[in-house]
Design goal:
By secondary structure, the chain is of the alpha/beta class. The protein contains five helices and five strands, in the order βαβααβαβαβ.
Length: about 120
């Protein structure tokens, strides 16, 4: 599990979270990426494409890798605070809350990284 609270407000932390999640997917590790706080905006089409950080892989490519081989979840409360609904998000991104996060956290073998 990788949980990121960072977005444009903390680009290095944001890119680290997406890089770790995408790298884990590429290595065959089951990955659940949680978008919370300011990273919630990356659940919307076009937002990852607008993100830029020198010497970092494109965020849209990292997100696509995680979507292709893992799970991406947008926090329910974070979505609601930003008026984001399921109709708004990129296909494949789900909206779920704390109960699902806790369930995934407690799964056997689960490890969480928070950025």
């Amino acid at each position: 599990m990788v949980k990121t609270t960072a977005g444009q407000d903390a680009p290095e932390r944001c890119a680290q979270a997406f890089t770790v999640a995408a790298t884990a997917v590429t290595a065959g590790v089951p990955v659940s990426l949680w978008l919370t706080g300011e990273s919630a905006w990356f659940a919307l089409p076009g937002r990852a494409e607008a993100f830029q950080l020198p010497h970092s892989a494109p965020l849209e490519s990292l997100l696509a890798a995680v979507l292709a081989g893992g799970t991406v979840t947008l926090c329910t409360q974070c979505a609601a605070r930003r008026d984001i609904t399921e109709r708004d998000v990129i296909p494949g991104i789900r909206i779920a809350g704390a109960a699902v996060f806790v369930e995934e956290s407690l799964a056997e073998g689960a490890q969480a990284l928070i950025y």
